[in-house]
Structure formats: structure tokens, C-alpha cells
Amino acid sequence: MSHPAPLPPLGGATSPEAVFDALELAVRRRLPGRLHGDKRGLRLGSGSDPEEVVRYRPGEDDVRRIDWNVTARSGEAHVWRPLAEHELETWVLVDDSPSMAFGTVALEKRDIAAGVTAAIAMLTAGPGNRLGTAHLTGDGLVWAAPVPSRAAAHRALRRHAVAPTQGGPDLATALRTFAARHPRPGVRVVVTDLVEPDGRTERPFAWEQPLRRLAATHETLLVEVVDPRELALPDVGTVTLEDPETGRRQEVFTSDKRLRRRYAELTAAHRAATADAVRSARSGHVLLRTDRDWVRDLARHVNGAPMRRVVPA
Fold it and tell me: Could you tell me what percentage of the chain is helix, strand and coil, using 3-state DSSP and rounding each to the nearest 5?
């Protein structure tokens, strides 16, 4: 009986090259047969796969594409026209805000964000396919031009060493810029924890409309990363909590059962609200946790979610 490859050591001091090798093995074991970037175009043109059979037009159609079976049945010459094949350009928006530098298990949320970016690069690998990134930082969006998949994966793991900074635009503003800069339809992935700078936990969220616009023209997947301590408070007495976005601190007595219950209720309601908002935007949605096998959870989504076809410009 074969066992899944161990998770890559994203949170340690391991070299990016070693992490890449471990991640590639983990992705291959969990997504057999899915490490390709093949994406079929939707308009007729140069390509190799037959899409439709039409009457032969002398001087216009290639005689090498005559469909002899149809020609024999109809008594007239017919040719097949191929489905155009297009190179795939994928863009990933990575939330590098301070709230992503949080984790109470083996990994921080930003560790998983780097791993997801590298995994997406591997999943979209193919001849001519490229992947670019935009990192949401305190200095705004930091863009990295599209490069081939393996180079993009290595770059994502090296970029992970850059520490997050305070400030910068919110997710809603970043999504608007992200959508406007590369309008040609393609694959767009957003990796974030959906933590609002103003602490908002109820709809409507500021990022809903920009996400809806992004998903209207692109194959879009939102990868939400959470830590178990964001879902439930442990009973550990008095602790000091700090808001990573504002730096504000507050002491909390976690042994209060009513407080823990109320906290769990609010976080559950927030999870439900964000899931509903992403679903309403017609975007794909996968929830990854720092205390789970995030590669397996991502693989389950990729294996189970059919891609919505987009028409190249």
C-alpha cells in the first residue's frame, strides 16, 4: 500500500530547492494525472484536435484534413476544422498582509500561501504556459512577470522569505487592480485569509463586488487560509491578543466558557458568510487550514471541481 508523500517543510529553514522537490512529490502523489496545463481553446484555428466537419472549399481548405468517412457517406468532400490551442497564462494574487503571518501549529498562513502558489504553478504546467504573481504588501501590489511553471514555483518559494509589512491597499482595492491589469480571460487564483482591516465579519464585504467582476471574465479560484485558533479559543487562562493589522492589544480570559462559545459562534458565522459571498461571486472556493494536509485538501478541490471554460480574447 502506497502512502502520500510527506508535506513539504514550508515553515522551516529548508532551502527553496529542497522544499520544491518535496512539494512536487507531494502534489504528484495527491493529484495523479493532473500535473498538466492542457487547456483547450474555444475558437477555431491552428491546432491538432478536430472540432467540426464542414464541406470542402476548394482553394481555402487543406486537403490533408479531408474526413474520408464523412466524404464517403455524404458523397461530397468534407474536411475537419481543428480546435485552436492557446498557451495558458495564470495569475495568482497572494495576500502578504500582516494577518497572514500567523500560525499556531507547524505553519503560518503565509507558509501555505507560498506553497499554494508553487502548487498552482505545477498544476498549470504545459508547453508555453506561464504563471505570474501579484503580492499584496504594505507598499501596494508587487508584480512578478509570468514565467514557466517550474521557474514560477521556485520563485514563489524564494519570495516567501520576504517579511510582511504594515499598510498597503485592502483586498477589495487589490482585486480591482488585479483584474484591470490583465483583462484577457484566463486562470486567476486569489490566496488570502479574508481578514478585513476594519474587523468586519458580516456581509456585504468590500471584496465581494471586485471578486464577482474578476470571476465574470476569468476562471477564478479563491483559496482561503485559516488557523485553528481563529476558529476556536483554547482554555489557557488569560492571554494577550494582538491585532496583526493594527497592532492593538487586548487581554482575554479564555477560561470563560461563555466567551469561548460566543467566539466560536461568531467565527462560524463569519466562515458561513464568506463562503456564501464567494459562492455568490461565482468563484471557486477552497478552505485550507494550517493544521491539516493542505496539499490533500487542495487536491480534493482540483479533482472534484470542473473548470469553467473561458473564451480567449
Answer: 35, 25, 40
